[in-house]
């Protein structure tokens, strides 16, 4: 098995009597894009600061390339950080900002010039070397911060919510550029964000944090399609959650009921008759049918459309079930498909196929 580049072993971190991280263990591998994901205050930025050396753990050990770095200062670790605020020098040009670390190391001027221009080319800022930082847009300043961080080719680049201040379009563009840059450099990126969509689209693996501990580690597909618990399911994307009970077992399936409608589901957790479960269905996995389209509504829930939200590529529907419970459904929009011409208050049937749901043990 590949040796981890970074190993986090049983890390605890407290500020006074306030615990921030609680027994966090994690391995990070060379060349991967790892995202620390969670709400504000969950400990993800603290962990980043521990790796960089700006904070020290209360308990536990951090290894980089096999060396314990608990007491090693930031400048002695082969990692660099891109901060949310960029931390650029406003009185210096783009060139001088990127060259700053090399000048501190007394690198020769010809080598500085070559490496600075190479770094600016990597982040698509050729021709900007003599610009003043104040003349740049937010996205351009972000690229300068990244160029400065990668100029020494560290083993690890730490990025603390670097895209949070950018507008939506620029943020999307920078997500793609960062991922391409990481693959081009074959460098390990550890990226902090609270944005689930950002984490899903950019990461090789995601670490989901909650109140100072790790809930789940996995690929974006694994995290989204097979959440480890209710917290992960609710935090990543939209969900419809039903509390159900196992009524019967048949081969690899189990029978339960939603809104008094019997349903068969895949028994993915070896559940037993009588077990209470959370049944989770993503909006995009729900199919909505008009009454005239269905001859046999077995396994379907009756409902009524109470809201229609057109989003360009999708149509999002809010459907009130017989109990009054509102669920969300999302269908890809096709302007040539008459089936997607829904109307408010329309009576419909709602369905998902066995295996499209996620079953989790009940949490009170």
TrEMBL record:
SMART domains: AAA. InterPro entries: AAA+_ATPase, ABC_SmlMolc_Importer, ABC_transporter-like_ATP-bd, ABC_transporter-like_CS, Mo/tungstate-bd_C_term_dom, P-loop_NTPase, PotA-like, PotA_ATP-bd. Its EC number is 7.6.2.11. It comes from the Bacteria. GO terms for cellular component: ATP-binding cassette (ABC) transporter complex. SUPFAM superfamilies: MOP-like (SSF50331), P-loop containing nucleoside triphosphate hydrolases (SSF52540). Keywords: ATP-binding, Cell membrane, Hydrolase, Membrane, Nucleotide-binding, Translocase, Transport. It catalyses: ATP + H2O + polyamine-[polyamine-binding protein]Side 1 = ADP + phosphate + polyamineSide 2 + [polyamine-binding protein]Side 1. GO terms for molecular function: ABC-type putrescine transporter activity; ATP binding; ATP hydrolysis activity. Part of the ABC transporter complex PotABCD involved in spermidine/putrescine import. Responsible for energy coupling to the transport system. PANTHER family: SPERMIDINE/PUTRESCINE IMPORT ATP-BINDING PROTEIN POTA, SPERMIDINE_PUTRESCINE IMPORT ATP-BINDING PROTEIN POTA. The complex is composed of two ATP-binding proteins (PotA), two transmembrane proteins (PotB and PotC) and a solute-binding protein (PotD). Belongs to the ABC transporter superfamily. Spermidine/putrescine importer (TC 3.A.1.11.1) family. This is Spermidine/putrescine import ATP-binding protein PotA. The lineage of its organism: Bacteria, Pseudomonadati, Pseudomonadota, Gammaproteobacteria, Legionellales. The gene is potA.
């Amino acid at each position: 098995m590949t040796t981890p580049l970074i190993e986090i072993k049983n890390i605890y971190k407290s500020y006074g009597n306030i615990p921030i991280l609680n027994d966090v263990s994690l391995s990070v591998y060379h060349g991967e894009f790892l995202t620390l994901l969670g709400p504000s205050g969950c400990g993800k930025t603290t962990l980043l600061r521990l790796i960089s050396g700006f904070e020290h753990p209360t308990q536990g050990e951090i290894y980089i390339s096999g060396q314990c770095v608990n007491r090693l200062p930031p400048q002695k670790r082969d990692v660099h950080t891109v901060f949310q605020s960029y931390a650029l020098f406003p009185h210096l040009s783009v060139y001088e900002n990127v060259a700053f670390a090399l000048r501190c190391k007394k690198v020769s001027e010809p080598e500085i010039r070559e490496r600075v221009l190479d770094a600016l080319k990597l982040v698509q800022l050729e021709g900007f070397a003599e610009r003043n930082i104040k003349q740049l847009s937010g996205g351009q300043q972000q690229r300068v911060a990244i160029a400065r961080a990668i100029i020494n080719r560290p083993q690890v680049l730490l990025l603390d919510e670097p895209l949070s201040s950018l507008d939506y379009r620029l943020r999307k563009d920078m997500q793609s550029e960062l991922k391409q840059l990481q693959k081009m450099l074959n460098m390990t990126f550890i990226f902090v964000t609270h944005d689930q969509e950002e984490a899903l689209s950019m990461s090789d693996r995601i670490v989901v944090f909650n109140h100072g501990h790790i809930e789940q580690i996995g690929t974006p597909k694994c995290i989204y399609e097979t959440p480890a618990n209710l917290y992960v399911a609710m935090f990543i994307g939209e969900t419809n959650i039903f509390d159900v009970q196992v009524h019967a077992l048949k081969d690899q399936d189990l029978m339960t009921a939603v809104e008094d409608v019997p349903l068969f589901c895949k028994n993915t957790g070896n559940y037993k008759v009588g077990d209470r479960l959370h049944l989770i269905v993503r909006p995009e996995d729900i199919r909505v049918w008009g009454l005239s389209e269905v001859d046999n509504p077995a396994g379907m829930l009756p409902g009524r459309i109470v809201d229609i939200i057109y989003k360009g590529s999708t149509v999002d529907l809010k459907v009130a079930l017989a109990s009054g419970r509102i669920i969300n459904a999302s269908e890809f929009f096709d302007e040539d498909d008459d089936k997607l011409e829904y109307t408010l208050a329309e009576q419909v049937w709602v369905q998902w196929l066995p295996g499209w749901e996620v079953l989790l043990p009940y949490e009170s």
